[in-house]
Model the fold of this input.
Amino acid sequence: MDTPSAPPGTDTPAPATTQRWRRWVAPAFALLMLGLPALPVSDFWISQSIYIGMGALVCLGLVLLTGVAGLTSFGQAAFVGVGAYTAAKLTLAFGWPPLLTLAAGVLLAVAAALLLGAITLRMSGHYLPLATIAWGLALNYTMANLDWLGKYDGLLGIPALTLFGLDLGTGRALHLLVWAIALLAALAVTRLLDSRAGRALRAVNGGASMAEAMGVSSFRAKLMAFVTAAVLAAIAGWLFAYFQGTVNPSPFALAKGIEYLFMVVLGGVGQVWGAFLGAAVVRVVSDQLQVLLPRLLGTSGNFEIIVFGIVLVAVLKYAPDGLWSFVVRRWPAPPRRRDWGGAPPLAQRPKPARGELLLEVTAVRKEFGGLLAVNDVSFGVRAGDIVALIGPNGAGKSTTFNLVTGALALTRGGVRFRGREIAGLGSRRIAQRGISRTFQHVKLIPEMTVLENVALGGHLRSHAGALRAMLRLDRAEERQLFAEAERQLARIGMAGQMHQPAGNLALGPQRLLEIARALASDPALLLLDEPAAGLRLQERQALAGVLRQLRGEGVSLLLVEHDMDFVMGLADRVVVMEFGTLLLEGTPAEVQASPTVRAAYLGMEH
Done:
């Protein structure tokens, strides 16, 4: 089979043998697990495999929630309980068929996830994990204390699963269903991660500021991951109820939630196939240790928990990315197949006429308690110009920049863009109006390729959501996004590096990548926050050449910078600040000739 093609000048693709191995390993694994019941395998290992499949379903949700979005949850076992108890109660009390109990369990899990997510997902730091512990305990104790759910004894006598007249029992036939669902879920999650919604989810992990500046609703992305993880857990619970024939609170306690998290960390917290590896290792090794350790120690007890604690510490020390990371390093993924040639361009916003007043900053003021950081500063930016905002350290440049971009709220004053007031709008709303930005400290997604990072910039120019991505109905739009990303990379001279992981780039190319990502949003105004900071002379010269080229193409720029040499050979107009106030606005020649500016930079007039 032909290997994926790569455009001229791109990185050397992975060896053909590696590409073929990676292409066929997933189908081969799927055939093995789906065909396992037909092989001469004991019923014990069939049961173990069913438990692994159900555990992997929960872990796939944690891959999205914890590994990709960066949201630690200890409460996923409670959502498993929601699916299990719903199936058990509706079957025993009302005789509902399994597909209806599945739908009810999923809907109940979605409702609970939306409610809990609305309350907890706005938290950050250690508060979010503590909140997941709290609602996990609350849901578990609710199950254990309701008479109609059987309290601690639970619900007994659940009949075997029957679908379309077929009795699946609790063995080999059920194994086929469990693994078909688990593998389809893995395919759906893989597709989701390779999509507009997946890139948005990864952006949230890097902090809300970058995601919101690219037009991503960080809360909505987190909620999508939270609800998806809850749905996968509820499906696992539905399978668990029919497999066990009984449900009680114990399998859905906080300890089980910690075990699921342990599985996904052990396998590889950000890896789809790490979910299966972690679930398999924990299930099989735990079962074997329960037999071997009492024999070795001469006494019974939960000694396997101690062993797993030691193993977890060792994994965090020597394989922080999980066991699957060894597979990824040994057989790296081939470059993305370039299938976007000839894709129609994305829609573009109307361009302002040269000389039009794009940005009007009027007497903006920012106070932090008793500190006056920006004191009634006013300036403007016209279409087709490069305007530089400069000043010594502590002059208030970055604060002013953040007031314009919505990262900080104004104390008073006004900011108008293309005649419309944008003061008080958040970063995402301002990005929707046509302002894009870079950051003083580069904000990229290091594990994604250069091409994928730039495609994130086109988030607002596309619309496909998570469900369309899972069903693979977003491919035409994806080709448009990648065609636009390649065009912007070629525009700044980085098309040859588009398949590299962004984290492998030096600082200079990373800053250029940020500019390409911002350009992918089709901005009317591009804001650059200290783009030359930390760059060597040759890198600064290359950057200046790119910015001149963009100006020649009609791009309008406002940049914050403290490097006078870099600014004076580049800007059309310069705004000088000192101690939060506007010191001078003029051409580079006027600023260089000003004794006041020399005094501000040198501390004296001559």
In short: Confidence is low (pLDDT under 50) at residues 1-13. DSSP finds 23 helices and 14 strands in the chain.
